[in-house]
Design goal:
By secondary structure, the protein is of the alpha+beta class. It has 3 helices and 4 strands. Strands 1-2-3-4 form a 4-stranded antiparallel sheet, covered by helices on one side.
């Protein structure tokens, strides 16, 4: 004789969710985002005091797609022969760092 089907099934109870807040990763500092062969260089100021790079416009568009309305625009903060690093100051106070290599840019933080 077989036991009833209901006794053969086990009920699954998921583990309780943690009430602890989810910790976000700390922002990446500029020095941590640079390769050891890169260095921060001062660029001569452009008109308006902003340091423009070759890919400033692209970085500003990417920032907008990442929920950032640039307060002033993308500022070139480091440049090597193969990479440019930009900082974008958003109107809500957040800062975003982008690194562009071979015309391919990615957000670092």
């Amino acid at each position: 004789m077989q036991p009833p089907q209901s006794s053969m099934r086990s009920s699954y109870t998921p583990p309780p969710r943690s009430s602890a807040p989810v910790q976000q990763e700390a922002p990446v500092s500029l020095s941590e985002s640079l390769d050891p062969s890169e260095q921060i260089v001062d660029m001569p100021p452009q008109s308006g005091g902003r340091k423009n790079g070759e890919l400033s416009d692209l970085v500003e568009r990417m920032a907008r797609k990442n929920a950032c309305t640039p307060a002033t625009g993308a500022t070139l903060i480091a440049k090597t022969s193969g990479a440019e690093t930009y900082q974008v100051s958003c109107q809500d106070g957040q800062q975003q760092i982008y690194k562009c290599e071979l015309r391919q840019c990615r957000m670092m933080n």
